[in-house]
Amino acid sequence: MGGNEQNYVQEAFDTNWIAPLGPNVNAFEESIEDYLGNSIKVAALSSGTAAIHLALELLGVGYGDDVICQSFTFSASANPITYLGARPVFVDSERETWNISPGLLEKAILDGMANGKKPKAIIAVHLYGMPYKVSEVNEIAAKYDIPVIEDSAEALGSVYKNKPCSTLGTIGILSFNGNKIITTSGGGALVTKDVILKNKAVFLATQARDNAPHYEHTHIGYNYRMSNVLAGIGRGQMEVIEDRVNSRRGNFEYYRSKLAHISEIEFLKEPEGFKSNRWLSCILVPSYNTREKIRLALLEEDIESRPLWKPMHIQPIFEGCKVYVDGTSEDLFQRGLCLPSGSNLQKDDLDRVIEIILKVLTQ
Ligand SMILES: *Cc1c(COP(=O)(O)O)cnc(C)c1O
Are 12 and 232 in contact (CB under 8 A)? Predict the structure, then answer.
């Protein structure tokens, strides 16, 4: 926590705004809007998953539609597609950012169109905070007139060509889950340049209540609005977002500086114009066996590390979905490891991790 969170939570109690609306919700939204830029509108929601669900609905995705989704991601990017009775089409990553491959994306779109089924939307992800190839993806999306949902759950504080991630697609989404760079314990947001879209998101997120003295409904609604208590945590967190980005980037730079001389270890570079918040510090090693050796050696010392995300197209639950893959994400999953990356890690903590990795690789 940054320091002021409890004061804002106390304010919610003192003023009796214990509800999914109130001054903290409005102020939290405004602080994100200020951070992202003046023309941006933000709707605070109960989770990033809820934000993706609403984004898909607002873009008109419905039963039987195809939605393209980056395969190399957390399952929450893809699950909401199925909530609407639509079907995910998984597209592999390229090696420079580990995110959706523009070449395979276009192939998936062209195939869909050839079969009389143009995809209804594209979900692209800034995985681990690294921006995807936004210009290329947007160009393809514009060429075929398909909206882009920009999954920025891991990328608050990341920047692409001087513009903040979550403002670069048709609709952006953020997450404030407990593991993200800032948190409200659980929470999310929908990000848009269109105030009408924001209002529609809030309308759907608050049970789609029409304007009437009684309860009148012409739409199916959801209970997806953020609590005013949790938004208080968010207000405090937004005051320290820049510190959090700096510490995450600091972790990454420290690991890199101490491990750069080991030829077996690869770090993902930032291409020109890309700035990652380095939400997690990840490494690639030459083989699955080496990755497991490092992971188990860390575990032996009570240090948790994790393999990179297992791609969606090899998850049992998504068996049988359409896929456009070239082996990239499966290879990353085999050889990649997320190292301890918390914003509160001290130099001593990082040194312990580094020492164990060096021991494994120089044995
Ligand atoms: C965390 C995460 C989500 C979901 O956010 P929640 O707030 O946990 O629902 C979606 N996509 C990605 C890539 C994530 O990492």
Answer: yes
